[in-house]
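Progress note, project year one: complex with copper (II) ion.
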Amino acid sequence: MKDRPIGDPTFCNHNVIKMLKVIIAAFLFFVGAHCATVSVNVVGNTFVPAVVNANVGDVVSWTGLGASHNVAQVADETALANEGFRSGAIGAVPTFETTIDASQAGSTLFYICEAHVSIGMRGKIDY
Ligand SMILES: [Cu+2]
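Model obtained:
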């Protein structure tokens, strides 16, 4: 093997590639380690907790939707019309999940149960 002077740009290309692999692996681990599942349950006609905090990459998971509830994103605290994620028709599924993506960062997401929004069945996801 030929000796190369310090500063030679072809020096140790293998090590640079190895280092990049380590950096990418560390980044993926770091991102993965910060993704969490945020759980919301339905108790009676209420989302519990009604306000949750989530980060980009987190999964928000609703359980207890049963036969008489659903989850539908709406524009704000008073809106009634679906605008975004939706679990389907009322009672269609017992559980529902949505993953928070970067386009939703820095805002508050509002959602309702379409069957019971008239009696205040609303929730919020804060960032
Ligand atoms: Cu409901």
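Residues 45, 68-69, 113, 115-116, 121 surround copper (II) ion (CB under 6 Å).
Helices lie at 13-33.
No further modelling is planned for this target in the current period.
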